[in-house]
Amino acid sequence: MLSLTQVEVDALLLSLRIAAVAVLLSLPLAFACAYLLARGRFPGRLLLDGLVHLPLVLPPVVMGYLLLVLFGTKGPIGGWLLETFNFRLIFNWTGAALAAGIVTFPFQVRAIRLALEAIDPGLEVAAETLGAGWFDRLLGITLPLSLPGVVAGAITAFAAALGEFGAIITFVSNIPGETRTLPLAIYTALQSPGGEQAAARLAALSIILALAGLLLSEIVARRLRRRMGR
Amino acid sequence: MSLEVDFRHVLGSFPLDVRFHADKGIQALFGPSGAGKTSIILAVAGLLKPRQGRIVLNGQVLFDSAAGIHLAPRLRRIATVFQDGRLFPHLNVRDNLFYGWKRNGRIVPMPQANGLIDLLGLAGLLDRRPGDLSGGERQRVALGRALLMGPRLILLDEPLSALDQARKQEILPYLEYLRDEAHIPMLYVSHALDEVIRLANRMILIDQGKVAAEGAVTELLSRLDLVGLTGRLEAGAVIDARLSVQHVDDGLSELAFPGGTLLVPMLKGALGKRVRLRIRARDVILALDRPTGISALNCLDGVIRDIRDDAEDGHLQVALDCGGITILSRITRRAGRLLALAPGKPIHAVIKSVNLERGRAE
Fold first, then answer.
1. Which of A224, B145, B204, B218 could form a disulfide with B214 if both were Cys (CB 3.0 to 4.6 A apart)?
2. Nearest-CA neighbor of B283 among B329, B326, B241?
């Protein structure tokens, strides 16, 4: 009972790959957004704040639909990608990663922003008087001090990306081995007669993953905070 | 070293109009909280850009509104020691100390850097994190970090005000040593007169965004017109004297200054050592004749130079000239009337030895 079937392993590995790519690729952008929101004073800051948080309140199906319009083969960005790089997001696992990355983006931005706002701005001022330029301060002071938030945000987003359903199924459909992540596999199992047991096993797997992610995030953040001397 | 500061700025609705110069030694920026002292420090460091004016350090223009010059803080090589230390919590003491050193061309040679670390008593703390340090240790690290960058000028923004009395006493000797031996000029912001008296050579009195007076500490503190700013209750003359005789059996030291000699509670140190002494105005008794049969050991001969009515509480502030040195006395109006005090009148100043606190002591 404890060993996983090939279908389960496929769904699990695919989910992990999609979530990992989604989080790693969106992390730098999330840090930049969080930095702008925490430190920037510019017109349109409120708009950026709203845009970043939009996936949190928008129905995932709507997100998937918007992605389809923009990144579909006939969409403005999707069409360009296909023509220029012969690269297709739709019906492809990379498209699932894009969807998961966008939907979980707010989790990262919020965690990083909170961490940035908790840093004493006086420390960067002190670094400046000691001869450190902007990038030097970012790399040597701001980034390490916000690391607990960055890691916590990334792990939370990773756990959430594993569970993304609506945006993925709408944007890249439900293709075994390509876009059928754990939640999509559960959905598929429930749709087929006698699939209740398979669905239950997959659901249990999802719960374990999600819980492990949250616990890991908490432990890592705590350890980092202690290392930062706080 | 020469620092020329001349600028105007507005903070909220608070106008700042500052002009002073500073040279070697420790210059105290003294004044009540909210007088604009910290803003002056920030402008010199480059962290605040004044609306108008000019700041020049050793001939280099740091800021000139007319010429459109505003040198970035990181290019000024001016160290700042903040009230709260501002050590980097994720770096150990060693990395904190060398943070500015690495970014300023490593101009302090390594042996000298290690010497400073030893001097500040930090050699045993190098692997610790700031979170594990006491308040006094943290300020010592902040001071070391400032020194190691090889600064042309050190700005100290109330570096001791977050510390209790014991921790202050722990840091003060280091600052005195730096003043006397390291020859790095410092601008020292404080609203604690005892620190200023102990450390500073010159004093720049700041009041409501303006320089009310500047000059030697001894000179400013003996000016009656500034008593309202330097503190009415704590008002008193500061004199520089030399240790001349030790009366070990009586537990007394004799100090010589141009106005005479003073017996004070025993001081440690070699004969001839310079001692800065503060004589609070309220501890000085005035007498027309040299008193006899009195327990007070000190009696200075002088002439009344100036008398001022203190509008606040109706007492009198009297300035005496004792051999060219000013001594202040604070007496009631009635006493002034009974003694018929007037400028030019010869007078004796009587001071109990136990009331003579040391302004500066090594």
1. B204
2. B329
C-beta pairs of A79-85 under 8 Å, 24+ apart in sequence? none
Q: Look up the domain containing A82 and give its range.
A: 16-227
Task: Identify whether A162 is part of a domain.
Answer: yes
pTM, whole model, 2 decimals? 0.82
Contact check, Cβ <8 Å, A136/B73: no
Is A84 a member of any domain?
yes
Tokens of B360: 């500066």
- The two tokens of residue B266 are 């025993």
Does A196 reach chain B within 8 Å, measured CB to CB?
no
Residue A216, in any domain of the structure: yes
Which CATH number belongs to the domain containing residue A178 in this structure?
Answer: 1.10.3720.10
User: What domains can you pick out in chain B, each with its CATH number?
Assistant: 3-225 (3.40.50.300), 236-360 (2.40.50.100)
- Structurally, how many domains does chain A consist of? 1
Q: Which residues of B touch A (CB under 8 A)?
A: 45-47, 72-80, 82, 84, 86, 88-90, 99-100, 103-104, 129-132, 145, 149
- pLDDT tens-digit series, residues A161-193: 988 888 999 999 888 888 898 899 899 989 988
Q: What is the pLDDT of residues A129-167, one digit of tens each?
A: 999 999 999 999 999 999 988 998 999 899 889 888 889
- Hey, is A156 helix, strand or coil? helix
